[in-house]
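Data availability (excerpt). The following record was deposited with the supplementary files.
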Amino acid sequence: MTGQTRPDRGDRWLPSRLHALRPSSRKSPLGRRLSVGAIVVSLALAGVGTASFAEAAAKKATKKTTAQTTAAKKAAAAKKAAAAKKAAAAKKAAAAKKAAAAKKAAAAKKAAVAKAAAARPAVPTKPITLQILSINDFHGYLEPPSGQITTSSGLVDAGGGEYLATQLNDLRNGNPYSVTAGVGDFTGGSSALSAKYLDEPSIEAAKALKVEVSSVGNHEFDAGLSELLRMQYGGCNPSKGCFGGSTFSGASFPYLAGNVLYKSGVTPKPPAGAKTYGSWYSARTGRTVFPSTWVKTVGGYKVGFVGLTLKDSGAHVKNSDGIKDITFVDEVSTSKLAVADLRASGVKTIIGLIHEGGTTPTPDYDFTCQDGKVLSGRIAELAKELDPGIDVILSGHSHQAFSCSIPDPSGQPRIVSAGSAFGRLITETTMTLDPKTQDVVRSSVKSKNHIVTRDGSKDAAMTAVLKKWQNLG
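Predicted structure:
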């Protein structure tokens, strides 16, 4: 533009309040110099103010930052203190919980010890007389059998379940420390009545006779292992069903079979309803079809029973297919294992239920190996070899009667007895138990056979069992 001075490029950076001081082209050179000076002075003053403002702002910002940092530290410290307090409370609660649990556990342990002490029989301080009543080779003769017993004065009719039960009760009277045991062949090779109903009558008769334990015999396996298991655990026969419309309940006593084992590779099939079947496999005798031992506390004394059958049982069993999964092993080695198990359980008094037979030179029911007469046969040999921890040997199988003393392997006297068959005799064996040793005083052992005569009363419980099966006719 003509007649005007273009603003200097630096004007754009001048403060707006200084624009009025810009030198005018219309002023004189002196005026322009004065204006420029004023600008310089103004700019200097403006710089001083700007620096002071920035410094103040910086100080303010620093103060704010410091305050924020202090607040943050204070908050962090408060948070840390709260966390520490919470952790301390948790630790205290955990300690209290642990102490309560420890107190509860101590109380439970004390209660368990007290319960165990209450359940544990008191250690006997006095000797007792133990009575063992035994029956061997019953063979299901609920009804009176044929045949007679030989005595020094002649032949005597004997046997019959009703009379047998009565005389057992009579022998128990006055003997508070009594146990009744079977020594094999309670079933099998049975009377017509028991055989007709697959030996269920014989097992029910055992309950009326108050049998508490029994070894198996060879005849127990006549119908096969599965049927023997049914005799123990109950149930109806798969082919013939339930007799009389009711389910057979099985034996009221435990069978023992220490030397009858499942063969290697055979997986035992637990009988229906036998939830604990095989619980004894951990014993030294191994996978036996029934336990090898049974223990009863009598008068504070632990009385153990070892049950064995002859190792040749398989040769006497009619139904060989029924025993294809099992094997019969040596009686002597098995006796050592069974006695070791009982000893480990603190049992000192041990009764052997050994279904193996002997032969006597005379038929007398009270043969005692006197006057040079001796017992022969397999049981006489075993008596010298079976573990000496067995105090008494009750036997069977040969249907002969005897009560002899034969030294055990340690040279101590040991009674070996048997009581004919078919419920004609009851073998009564008595012995003193010593509180100091918890064992049998061998010199005190006495054994004798009692004839089951038919001149006494009939036991009502056995009569009921007999009538039940007779009436199914």
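Summary of structural features: The chain has nine helices and 17 strands.
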